[in-house]
């Protein structure tokens, strides 16, 4: 908390969406994209489909 870094993306073309996501994360602590891009999304899908 309190330290945010936006790195490892495709530079200029992604700047608008990265800015939106970073500002949401800083202000609200979460983004409007949390569900779609969550780190555990792959695990949740595989668990639902019983893929291991």
Number of helices: 3
| Total beta-strand segments | 0
**Largest β sheet strand count, sense and barrel closure:** none
Number of discrete domains? 1
**N-to-C CA distance:** 33 Å
List the helices and strands and how they pair.
Layout: H1 15-28, H2 34-37, H3 41-48
Written description of the protein model:
The mean pLDDT is 78. It contains 3 helices and no strands. It has one domain. The protein has helices at 15-28, 34-37, 41-48. It starts with 14 loop residues before the first helix and ends with a helix. It has 52 residues and is an all-alpha fold.
Quick recap of the structure?
The chain is mainly α and 52 residues long. The protein is built from 3 helices and no strands.
Features:
mainly alpha, single chain, 50% helix, 52 residues
């Amino acid at each position: 908390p309190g330290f945010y870094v936006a790195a490892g993306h495709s530079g200029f073309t992604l700047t608008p969406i990265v800015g939106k996501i970073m500002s949401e994360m800083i202000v609200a602590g979460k983004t409007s994209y949390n569900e779609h891009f969550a780190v555990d999304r792959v695990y949740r899908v595989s668990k639902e489909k019983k893929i291991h």
